[in-house]
Amino acid sequence: MTLFQKIIDKEIPAKIIYEDDLSLVFEDINPQAPTHLLIIPRKPIVKISDVLEEDKELMGHLIWVAGEVARKIGVEDAFRLVVNNGAKAGQSVFHVHVHLLSGRPFLWPPG
Ligand code: AMP
């Protein structure tokens, strides 16, 4: 069981700022920007490359949640979404999550 499943099950605490029947949004414990949130599906999908056709609507929902939360906290004009897929790309928790970062300048290309 991953750490994020334990957060979903409320077995370990997290600063949850949004939740619905499909998803959960909480603050990253090691923020890389003044605003750093994680948007996760309740469904335990390991990584983006494991997303099934039947998950397409769910994944779209996560993007909608990102915009909705960004509007609610007033960062809708400038934020970055990041998804790391696989350990070599920086994934450390194997439950799909979208990082929402805001509040500082962002370089392009990304590191
Ligand atoms: P990634 O490296 O893309 O898999 O992202 C995993 C993220 O989860 C990292 O940014 C961590 O700081 C974050 N993280 C790890 N444990 C926790 C926790 N208990 N609560 C909130 N965020 C966490």
Structure, explained:
The chain is α+β, with helices and mostly antiparallel strands and 111 residues long. It is built from 2 helices and 5 strands; from the N terminus they run H-E-E-E-H-E-E. The protein has a single domain, classed as HIT-like (HIT family, subunit A). The longest helix is centred in the middle third of the chain and has 18 residues. The protein is globular and about 35 Å long. The relative contact order is 0.22. The structure holds adenosine monophosphate (AMP). The site of adenosine monophosphate has 11 residues, from loops.
Short description, anyone?
The chain is of the alpha+beta class. Helix content is 22%, strand content 22%. The chain has helices at residues 3-8, 56-73; strands at residues 16-19, 23-27, 35-41, 80-82, 98-102.
Task: Offer a few descriptive terms.
111 residues, alpha+beta, five-stranded antiparallel sheet, 5 strands, binds adenosine monophosphate
Tally of DSSP β-strands: 5
Query: In the CATH scheme, what's the topology name?
Result: HIT family, subunit A
- Our count of domains comes out at 1
CATH class: Alpha Beta
SSE-based structural type: alpha+beta
The CATH architecture term is 2-Layer Sandwich
Low confidence ranges: none
Output the CATH homologous superfamily: HIT-like
- The average pLDDT is 98
Strand order of the largest sheet: 1-2-3-5-4
Categorize the overall geometry. globular
Helices, by number, come to 2
Give the percentage of residues in beta strands: 15-25%
CA-based gyration radius: 13 Å
Q: Tell me about the biggest sheet?
A: 5 strands, antiparallel
Question: Ends: how far apart?
Answer: 30 Å
Order of helices and strands: HEEEHEE
- Measured as a percent range, the helix fraction is 10-25%
List the bound ligands. adenosine monophosphate
